[in-house]
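[STRUCTURE TOKENS]
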Amino acid sequence: MVMDPGALKRVLRDRVEEYPKSIVTKLILEQAIVDSLFVAEGAEWLWQRRTAAPVFSHRNVAALAPVMTAAAERSSARIAASDGRAADMFAEMVAATFEVISDVTFSGGEGFERSAVHRAIEGYIANAAKVSVLDMLGVPGWVPRPGRVLGGSAMREMKRFADTAIDSRRRAATDAAPDVVTHAVPDLLDLLLDGEDPKTGRKMTTSELRDNLLTFIVAGHETTALTLSWALYLCAFDQSVQEAARAQAQAVLGDRAATQADIAHLPLIRQIIDETLRMYPPAAFLSRTAMVADELCGQSIRAGETVVLPIYALHRHHMLWDSPDRFDPSRFADPKAIDRFAYLPFGDGPRICIGANFALQEAVIILATMLARHRFSPVPGKDPKPVMILTLRPEGGVWLRIDPA
């Protein structure tokens, strides 16, 4: 396990080609997204990254913000129905962020049954997205893993929905007149269909499009839902932070939901998100396989060995953080004061999370809207237990009492 910032920089940035994603990681995910840039390595990864990077440009992400604002409005209305009672905010944040990712991925709704896809994703994570003993022993991927056999039908269902949507959108684009705009704002599928590698002109095949879209759908809602759920949990236990954040959000928003234009005026909301990502990073550990012999922190690393980057532990390391177990958003008041490789919620280097700006924009918009309109309090005996299942999930949900702000 590596938690030294210098060694982390070596693995993630300086020698990234010598430390590809671990074999265990690939065994877990290849069944689902074998043709995506999340799993790809080398030249295959590079051309996909060049093709997909413009999709998540600041301009494109900002253009999708109204979808996030609308989802925040709907979520707030659902939460208001629980005033005076407890509600599972993890379930609600999953619903809200899945609305966002499905609307910005398949805005036309073609062939996309939202509830069915959502069930398929939950089934995959519950049954297939776990490390098997066979993975740890290095048994080849063609040997069946019991959990992934159970999750296989869910994955096939997800791929069928995605293929149908891609084919439908392609037909619509082919049939439309040259001067007809099919979507006022291009969604992720539009942008990927139009995208090409600027160096080679190569475009994604249907399977590459599908696997990347599924990556964005699963990662794009699960991680942000977790961040929002843990943020509300932390704010419920620190009422002074919650009150300060509420005052800021209400001063900026008034009665409306947050928009992309408000983000710059909500620094405390962003600090809460950053501190939540430190304390409860959705991607709580990363792992890499050393391709060549190396030395990290004075220790010899043999070719073929797995190097684990325990992000959860890194973010609570007493040699890197003051009072690391204390919830203190003010530590992010000056982001430049944070050691870059002591804080890695999105990884770093060439393989840093491609959707980081999307996730942060969405999280600030939804959290600001929630705190401006609702008051959250702990529910005795309902503390969530962090459990690592692909991501750092709250076992039992995040149950909080809801009251009007």
